[in-house]
């Protein structure tokens, strides 16, 4: 099994096309065509983690956070980032980062936090814009059914809880093949009119290449007429953070104790108590101050995130319990999420890469310690 095959599986879990613009996801170091001896899954890639991969005979590290955020102009070993890259290259170890692609995934980081806290009836807190596209194409009427089925099989036509969604209208298309054409309908030099069906389907943008491949494969025309537009519709399953209801609503102090226990926190920084019973909760793993207003707009009683600054806590304004559980603490379960998802998806390659070659890093990479 090669590195690029593992990347393909990771893209099924969390397509990189949904990464935030500021992020640096994907293969950061290494050869995509290299054979994989083992995969080490970690939250952060430090020198000690690279050594752990070497000791475990793993030549691919799948990391949540990218070790390289911005361009490196020199690699001289002066910083921990440069030393990690040097060590990985010297030992032929590839590094792949999934970060905000997994943050934005429906079954990603925030779903895991919801599961730990006990949040049900989940919805995306801040849906990502521009993730839904629409294909419009025209096909001979007698081929419409087979083309629709091909597009559906490629993932087009899924809207929320519904599949095989399309709009179809019949009309008459015209074309005149020139001397260089190889028409499947009509004759060269003669304007031909064909009874056609106009098919319209939506799809998530990461499926674009797959949908177009299905279109060109299933369509009989030499030149396929089509157009793709990006829609402003809200995507119910892609975006930052989640909001839902507690399985067991509880008073604020009880909620804070529950949160400290399930998130395994040394401490929780929080805003003033509001006197509310905590029922509706918003969560966002990692730095989440930018989503405070979104949590309030969603009607949340509490917002669970990290990296809140002094003035951020004033934004609670007595109506929302803001909780900062710590950056590492909010994302600590992510490596288990990745390895469990990989284990399920990788079974088709079991002869080449047994499950035993999926290794969960045992190194605590939290840079913060508490007295």
UniProtKB/TrEMBL annotation:
User: Where, if anywhere, are coiled coils annotated?
Assistant: none
The record's annotation in Gene3D superfamilies points to: 3.30.70.120, NIF3 (NGG1p interacting factor 3)-like
Q: Can you supply one Gene Ontology CC term for this chain's record?
A: cytoplasm
Q: Which GO terms describe its molecular function?
A: metal ion binding
Q: Which SUPFAM superfamilies match?
A: NIF3 (NGG1p interacting factor 3)-like
Output the InterPro entries linked to this UniProt entry.
DUF34/NIF3, DUF34/NIF3_bac, DUF34/NIF3_sf, N-reg_PII/ATP_PRibTrfase_C
Quote the record's binding site residues for a divalent metal cation.
65, 103, 327, 331
Keyword set for this entry?
A: Metal-binding
* Family assignment from sequence similarity: Belongs to the GTP cyclohydrolase I type 2/NIF3 family.
How does this polypeptide assemble, per the annotation? Homohexamer.
PANTHER family linked to this entry: GTP CYCLOHYDROLASE 1 TYPE 2 HOMOLOG, NGG1 INTERACTING FACTOR 3
User: What protein name does the entry list?
Assistant: GTP cyclohydrolase 1 type 2 homolog
């Amino acid at each position: 099994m090669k590195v690029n095959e593992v990347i393909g599986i990771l893209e099924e879990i969390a397509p990189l096309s949904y990464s935030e613009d500021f992020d640096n996801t994907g293969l950061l170091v290494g050869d995509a065509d290299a054979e994989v001896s083992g995969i080490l899954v970690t939250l952060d890639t430090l020198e000690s983690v690279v050594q752990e991969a070497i000791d475990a005979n793993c030549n691919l590290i799948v990391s949540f956070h990218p070790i390289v955020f911005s361009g490196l102009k020199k690699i001289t070993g002066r910083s921990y980032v440069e030393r990690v890259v040097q060590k990985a290259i010297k030992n032929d170890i590839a590094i792949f980062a999934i970060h905000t692609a997994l943050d934005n995934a429906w079954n990603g980081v925030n779903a895991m936090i919801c599961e730990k806290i006990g949040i049900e009836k989940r919805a995306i807190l801040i849906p990502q814009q521009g993730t839904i596209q629409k294909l419009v194409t025209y096909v001979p009427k007698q081929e419409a059914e087979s083309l629709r089925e091909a597009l559906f099989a490629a993932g087009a036509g899924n809207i929320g809880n519904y599949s095989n969604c399309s709009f179809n209208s019949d009309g008459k298309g015209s074309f005149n093949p020139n001397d260089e054409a190889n028409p499947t309908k009509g004759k060269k030099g003669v304007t031909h009119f064909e009874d056609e069906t106009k098919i319209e389907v939506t799809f998530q943008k990461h499926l674009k290449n797959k949908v177009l491949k299905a279109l060109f494969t299933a369509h009989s025309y030499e030149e396929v007429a089509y157009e793709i537009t990006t829609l402003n519709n809200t995507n119910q399953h892609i975006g930052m953070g989640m909001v839902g209801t507690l399985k067991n609503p509880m008073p604020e102090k009880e909620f804070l104790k529950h949160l400290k226990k399930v998130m395994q926190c040394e401490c929780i920084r929080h805003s003033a108590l509001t006197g509310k019973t905590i029922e509706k909760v918003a969560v966002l793993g990692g730095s989440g101050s930018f989503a405070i207003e979104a949590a309030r707009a969603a009607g949340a009683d509490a917002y669970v995130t990290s990296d809140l600054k002094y003035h951020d806590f004033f934004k609670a304004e007595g109506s929302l319990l803001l909780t900062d559980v710590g950056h590492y603490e909010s994302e600590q379960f992510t490596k288990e999420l990745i390895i469990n998802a990989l284990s399920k998806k990788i079974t088709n390659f079991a002869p080449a890469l047994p499950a035993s070659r999926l290794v969960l890093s045992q190194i605590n990479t939290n840079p913060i310690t508490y007295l």
